[in-house]
Every structure is written in structure tokens, then in C-alpha cells.
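W.,

You were right to be curious about this one. When I first looked at the sequence I had no strong expectations either way, so I just let the prediction run and decided to look at it fresh. Below is the sequence, 407 residues in total, followed by the output.
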Amino acid sequence: MRKYLFVIILSLFTLNCLYAQLSISGVLDSTVSMNIGAGDAPVFSIGLEEYANLRFQAKLRDKATIYGAVNLLAAVGDYAANAALMASKGNDNPLSFSAFIAGDNYIAALELERLYFRLHGERTDFDGGLMRIPFGFGQIWAPSDFLNPRNPLKPDARLRGALGAALSFYPMDEMKLLVFYSAPRNPFSSEGKGSFVGLSFDKHWNKVSIQSLYSYETPNGNQAFKSSYGIHRIGFSLKADIEIGLYVDTLYTYNHEARTEWDGFSFSAGADYSFVDGKLIVLAEYLYNGATSSTAYGYGGNFSNNHYLYTGLTVRFNDFTSMNTTLISCFDDISFSALISVSRDLFQGATLTVSAQIPFDRDLFRKDGNRGELGPIPPDSLQALLPITGERLGRYFNLTARIRFKF
């Protein structure tokens, strides 16, 4: 790890010596959590995590910009155990090894998060490297953002990047045409199996924005969604600011070999509205999740049922203190996940956040075996999709305190 740090520091120094306009920023999170376990998990456990995200940007004259981001992490307790679970996910995957190394009383990791360049033109930009290629205007579920799937159950998680390239055209103001390529999800593929190519079109007006998207995934043989003919994805997204904010985001995934029907459809629609000069904000967003869609387990997403609703309420007490309450509901199996967080700005650049997350379902109250996806213990039908099978790991309550420094 020290060798990698030295290489990164030396690279930044070299860029600076080449007369690049170099800027560095980032965040440092210091977090402690308390967990009350369910099922086979420990009855009571704690975790400590020290996390930093370092971002740099270097401008080379007016012709190019280089972007990068590195994650540094040290963890013990629950955070270390979760990292071990993720490292063991997919033992048939040649990348099942972990990026973590063990210290005397902690595990630590250094992870490259972003590393790409941008070439600037009058009406065009070209990006290449490890980066986000975002799609859609969805606030919570974002079905069309299939290369960078989100999970509202983990709101603090950083969105993963993709190794690829993107060429952007700006034929007129507020209009954009994007042509993109992304490497296969299997990093060891040398035959282009499962590569993504496509294009998107964006148009913005004063109060309305739309985006259309098409992507083709080349034939693959190593994913859950196998296809000898390739996989087509067609998406549409809309946002409007007309007294209330409206969002629509949808993506249809079609596999000719599997004769995909409604199971390839993922659709979200939501709205937000602010009261009392922005001190009270209400947000709600619905998701329909098809069994083989972009938001489904095994196909890039994180959910196994069909109908979900996200409702959120943010209260700003003053310029320094706010509270956010969230309820994520699954209507298919009647399960819920509630999250309450309070944030306080201690001083400029430092924020303290205390959060409590509580999952519940019918089995929690009736003990009748009707466990839900969002409940304390995942149902048996979901066990095979989780990182470790044969263990019923869950939790009844989680309390987290985090102080974040921005620099």
C-alpha cells in the first residue's frame, strides 16, 4: 500500500511540474456504528471506520483536464466483517479476492475510484478512462442509470465508475448528443463479451428536460442475463420544475433469446415540493422493478420484488441543523426500512450526522415466518442471492454517528 501511495504522490508532483493547474480536494469521514443483530448475526456489535476520498483535477492549458479520485479506508468490527462478506461474494468469479490488507487491529484498503481525461473542443468533448457515465433524472431509483446502479438502502455509498469512453456533441445550446462505450462487467474478458455501446440525447428548456437512451450489450456467456444475440436497452427520462419537481425515469431491457416481456421493464416516477422557503422538503418516488430489469438482483440492481415506494421528509431548522426522515416500502411482501438522520454543522467544513435505521416486516410483529425483503432477516428466497448463503444474517437496529471534514 505504501508503494501505491508513493506512486500517486509522485504522479501528482509530476503533473504539477508539467505546469498543470492542479487542485486537490476531498472528504474525511470518521464513523462509529452500533448494530443489534438478527438471525445468525451477533446480538450486539460495533464498528469503526476511517474513510477518505481524495480528488484531484489537473488542467493542461485549455486543451485537456485530468480527473482522479482515490479512496483510503481503515475499518474494524462490523465494517471489517462486511468487507469480508463482499470479498467472498461470487466465489466462482476470478475477482473474488479482496483489496483489503490486515493490520494489527484493523483492515485497510486503497481503491482507485476515478481516473480519466477530458479533451475539450468548441462543440465536442471526449472523455476516456475510469469514470461515471450517468443517465437519467431519477432522484432515488434511477432505472436508466444502469452502468452506475444506485441503492437507496445505502444512501452514503459512492457510485461505482465504469472503464470506457464517451464523445459528447453540443450542436446548439442546451442540447447534447452522447456516444459511449463501456468495457464488459467481467474485467478478464479479452473478447469483448458483454461490452456496452450506445448513445443518448439530452434537451433542456427553462422548466423541462428530457433524455432518450439506447444501448446495445454484445453477446455474452458469463452473466445471469445470457444472450447469443446481445441485449438491447431503451430508456427515457424527464424532469420538470412546475411549482413541484416531477421526475420520470424508465429503462426497458430486451433479451431476444429469453423473449423478454414485462420482466425487463423498470420504471420510476416521483415528485418533490418545498414549503416555508425551502425549510421543509417532501419527496416521494415509486419504482416498478421487473424481474430481469436494470434494478433487479442479478442484472445490475439491488431488488427482487416488483413494487416499491420511497418517501422522504427533510426539515431545515436553521442554517446549521437539519433532519431527514425516510421510509422505503415494499408492497409485495409488506416490508419496510426506516431511516432517521440529524445533521449539525460544527464549523465550516465539518458536519456531524447521527443516523438510525430500522427494518421491519410482518414476521417482526407476528412471528409467523412472513419475512420481507426489507425486513430484519432476508427471506429464504433471497438467501441464494446474498454474498454468503447458509447464514441468516440480519439486523433489528443500526445507529451510526459520523463526523465529516471537507477540504
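Here's what jumped out at me. The longest helix spans residues 2-17. And, maybe more interesting for your project: The helical segments are 2-17, 78-87, 362-366, 380-383.

Coffee later to discuss?

I.
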